[in-house]
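writing this on my phone so excuse typos. first protein, seq and then structure
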Amino acid sequence: MANRLYLTATEERSGKSAVLLGVMQMIMKEVGRTAIFRPIINDHVFGRTDHDINLMTKHFNLDVPYEDTHAYTLTEARQLITTGQEGVLYGNILKKFKKLEANYDFILCEGTDFRGKDPGFEFDLNASIAANLGAQVLLVASGRDKTTNDICAHVHISVDSLQGMNIDIVGCIINRAPEHFIRETATNPTWCQDRFAGEFPLYVIPENKALGCPTIDDVKRWLGAEVLYGKPSMLNLVDNYLVAAMQISNFLTYIKEGSLIITPGDRSDIIIASLASRISTAYPNISGILITGGIELSPTVQRLLKGWTGIPVPVLFVDSHTFDTVHSVNELYGHIEPGDERRIATALGWFSRYVNVAELGKKLISTRSAKITPRMFEYALVEKASGDKQHIVLPEGTGERILTATDIILRRNIAEITLLGKEEEIRNKAASLNLNIEAAHIVDPISSEYYDDFVETYFELRKHKNIVRDVARDRMSDPTYFSTMMVHRGLADGMVSGSVTTTAQTIRPAFEFVKTKPGVSVVSSIFIMLLQSKVLAFGDCAVVPDPDAQQLAEIALSSAETAQIFDIEPRVAMLSYSTGSSGSGKDVDKVVQATEIAHKLMAERGLNFPLEGPLQYDAAFDPTVGALKLPGSQVAGQATVFIFPDLNTGNNTYKAVQRAANAVAMGPVLQGLRKPVNDLSRGCTVQDIVDTVALTAIQAQVAKAKQE
């Protein structure tokens, strides 16, 4: 029987979608094939996809067909119940569920949205469906606009109702909790906290405006508005509405962070002043401008705006009057869209910060998947990095991809971040991209308090190479050198660079003064290869062009140890064009010798994992071929760490596997250094940067643990 969970709210606008994201990520970290199922969807969605189903299937790349993800609309369900056909309703829901159960390992079910104006009916309906599916329930109660006593009473009544129906409650989340509730329950826990002690875990997630507030794009869809300018900024969050009808000098004093300015089209002065405020550091950042009344902008203002390169905020246009427009937008609330990576990152980070994922996951998932999918590995990576946050420095502080990745890293609590560059330039660029990097540290190398000390340190470390102080000053003015020195001096735990610089530029400073670990003579790299159902490590595919036997042996051991850091059980294959004793030649002899050296080094260092060579790639990878070519082997057909004889072979192979198998290649991850420094591809995506920072943070955790 597949694992199953029924996630249901107790009322509308509970923030259930954000919780759903967190729960799905938690499940997919442990289980390979997961489906989303909503027995009852809203009435208006036929003709277009249900919002939450669309969000889950797109963001998590679920392969479940849309027609299998739901059974009835709320109106259809009500009609069946009122006409005495509950059996038909529950029978067909169960039939659809069983179809999914036959093909998936876990089914995450989501209850209704409580938009039908009869919350009692929907609560009972969700409880009955959960009971018929034999699913545990995760209850989501909203704390929005409630007193502490109201929240506790509401949870108490909901839990008693479910338990009265013999529903197994696996946990309760009080979502969108107001500050006063958190403050009062922290200093004087109420019966709400004590009432359920020992029965199931109770989690409290504070209100987060970034999740509850709509975006400009939400406003556009809600009102059917036309976008006149500023389309790149449609994901700006709207925190408040400001109706502008007064003189500019008075109006400007009312601007707040995230204001949507609502004004008729004939108020050109307000429109221009609003846009000007957005590029002024003296005023908060507005989210956009909404022009009402169907009044078009004057030709002179249109001309001005058309010549204004990069309008900093969206400008929307509607035909409705100002009063009607304001009344309508007050009914709007935020939806998390599949492409809104920042809001998704916020939701996932917020969930993992306030919910004990390990505790809840243990209750939910009875069996873990033996296979590891790319998604499972990435989620486990982020969880491990955020469990013990490290300080990572990114020297390419003005890069758009770097700034976007920083926003995501901070939202998901993956690491503490320092960006190098001029603070005003970085802050302004982040603001122009609508990114939140407030929690990032920003350091300008030349004006830094550490600059002179770093110059002197570098001079002392390199004077044996005839380096003079002027050269040392030039070196420490270079962000890559400066950031590497931060790692060397313990001011950061790791460094990631390379989005606009070469691999040589990124790793040269580390070679000069971070140096290698004791007993390691060569710095090498691995790529973490995420295939559809397994995770492999390929080394070395990026650093050492033609290693000798001794270096190849060290690369093998370093790769195995790095693989272990990322929870890959090492079974090391020393690759060649020959398996066992089937071939001969200089290249084969090098691998044979490297294998012998590796075994000796393992014995000296107290390492214990399978390592064999020479092996051909097919014999190492494929169980059938491995059993045929090298029967009885612990590595053949089961290898997880593949060691290539030279850079030419390794680099071409990893790229071939990446493309042919549609695999995700994380890396290169540098290994052998005393402290972690990692390189990015110049063609890297934002997700590549996020992943590499997480990898680097985990390396830093291990490096610190060994020092202690």
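second protein below, same order as before
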Amino acid sequence: MLAVCLASVLVDELVRCGVTDAVLSPGSRSAPLAYALAAAEEEGRLRLHVRVDERVAAFVALGLAKATGRVVPVVTTSGTAVANLHPAVLEADAAGVPLLVLSADRPPELRGTGANQTADQVKLFGAAVRWWHELGTPEGGRPLETQAAAWRTAVDRAVSAALGFSGRPGPVHLNVPLREPLAPDPAATPVPAGRPGGAPWTELRIPSAPVGSVVDSVAGSVALGEEPRTLVVLGDLTGVGGKSTLGAGLTQAYRTVFGWAAQAGYPVLAEPFGPRDVSGPGALPHGPLLAAVPDLIADLAPRRIVLAGRLTLSRPVAALLRRPDTEIVVAGGGGRWADPSHVAHRVVDLMGLVAGAGDPPEGESEWSAAWRRAGEGVHAAVAPALARDFPAGPAVAAAVLDALPQGARLFLGASAAPRDVEVARDVDGVDVWASRGLAGIDGCLSTAVGMALAAPGVPTYALVGDLTFLHDGNALMIGPGEAVPDLTVVVVNDDGGSIFGTLEYGDPARLAYDGARGVMRRVFTTPTGTDLAARCAAHGASHTSVASAQALAEVLAWPPTGVRVVEVDARGVDRRGSEATLNALAEAALRGSS
């Protein structure tokens, strides 16, 4: 009965998003959707219009949407039925009409098998739709509430895209694979409830957006409302505000968010990107180590969390967003918002939010002061460990941040480097950058080269692992007559991807069996044994090896001139053990302050 439950959730959320009319062209695979639409009409929640010709149904929906300005779904079964909607979709695209195609489909295991009425409906309408998404087929082994949250947010995103949240209104396509049974059962499990009061799962408040139940237009700025126990979680802001959050504007965007949070009296947990000015507002130190605070000290639990930008790193920080009884406000921009856990209560425009700061509170609240003291306590506990734990990753990151000059730019490679800096970072005066769009290993060294060429007056550095360095080693190959960047690259060489040792694959219990460590080393950490000095010599790049934090600081004291590689030998470091030590120190400090 999961197909019927899915359909009921979709229709319920459509109504919550302001849908008042729907058009159905009946069929067998779409039966759960037909039952759900009929039930909603019987309850007086929407008007259902039934047409036997899919092409006609689509244009009826187009007319309804054009006349009302509301999103109107057209629902069909699988196969050629969906293809018959294409003319109306093309018209909706050209005219900017919010048409929503809700197509039933066969489950994935039937595709490509010759099963009847099974066509390739994936991105069937191509570039004609503003947004396309295929829902996951309901699963019996997963909590229904978790799946329903994902279904509801998919509806919210579809409606927002159709209404022009990311630009011009137009058609969208939700493809819904359904497994049998397709008819309702009176004894079926109740449908998971939506938000209280008939509200959409995700409320959007975006300046200058079209008016609708999901997308509410507000003037210029965004007000959150009073809630002193608000924690700000700051992720990657690249491109959130369009061109205003690229280049130097990106650095300023971080400063603006820090300033807004300080004025509002909100503590900030931040990923390691952007500046941490020596003077002025900033983030709490050692973010991932602090993320367990609400579980350790109940008095610090936030009632509201504002997620600014997109989280890309640590699991402990991301877990904060899944806390029960906590309102989650996502501050994004550019027509997209980050909500992989499907927990957002509201989505607001980041630029509008920071522009709408009200009067600052009279003095620091006790709650904010408690967060500040927690940060100070964790810093006092872990700073000595970072100083003596070289060449463990976080210790190397701390040494790099301490050694760089004020105003320097530091580009972080993939995987371990940004996580190490996130754990180690306090206040340093460095501006940290990274490629976190897809967070891939591809082209990290070349990206750092491009940054250095773009800002020749700014001391530019990179911190990468050996695999990231080797994956893009040809970035060192700069032809005669080409501009050579002034870039110093610090390579933490642990001869492979040691970060896998901190994941479930590196669990000591899993590695206790004969041969398990060999398998782990070969298929996960993938050692290469490459001589980095020889690789640098082949391309004429300077290479230096260091064995201590002091030696690293001495080398980094030289201003970047040409391409210079500084290798830190970290082979044999127990990354998992080092991480456990820092977490234990932080936990002890927090328990001692409670």
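Confidence is low (pLDDT under 50) at residues 208-213, 215-219. thats all i got for now
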